[in-house]
Specification:
Mean pLDDT: 95
CATH class: Mainly Alpha
Distance between the termini: 24 Å
Strand content: under 5%
Shape: globular
Number of strands: 0
Number of helices: 6
CATH architecture: Up-down Bundle
Oligomer: single chain
Low-confidence stretches: none
CATH superfamily: dinb family like domain
CATH topology: Four Helix Bundle (Hemerythrin (Met), subunit A)
Largest sheet: none
Order of helices and strands: HHHHHH
Structural class: mainly alpha
Helix content: 55-70%
Amino acid sequence: MTDTDEHGRPEPPVAGDETATLLGYLEFHRATLAWKCADLDAAGLATTVGASAMTLGGLLKHLAYVEDNWFSWSLHGRERSAPWNTVDWKADPDWDWHSAAEDDPDELREFWAESVRRSRTLVDEALASSDAGLDRLAGRGWSDGQTPSLRWILVHMVEEYARHNGHADLLREAADGATGE
């Protein structure tokens, strides 16, 4: 059984193995984003801070894209799914950020949550199908010839969420004054 904090976030294992620790921290940071985006209406999800155009809604959609990009497209070498496969990324390289303003708040939160569920399944598949474990290389490499390992992808995802959760703290406080960790 996993302990959770007062915001429902699962506590990473204190003495887990490498895989459990990485997945534990990723789940903690995913739950932090969910907490910061909970119970806000469209105006709350569209709140900005200072000169930045970043919003909580944009964070949700961006991280849904990042989940799909790393775990489906890169790790498993699969083609992009909707809506990512229909976006003209050259016309708007920040489409994930910009288009979130048009999305219903509940549908946007569910869209992100569904991408997280798919990612969990894809990580489980990768770990179950290979004796390489965290050393398993992604199915799709980079243009410079390097190919990241599952370990690298998980560490990168923890970093991605941790960085954006700092933004989420500021945006949530600007939206409705809610503060915390």
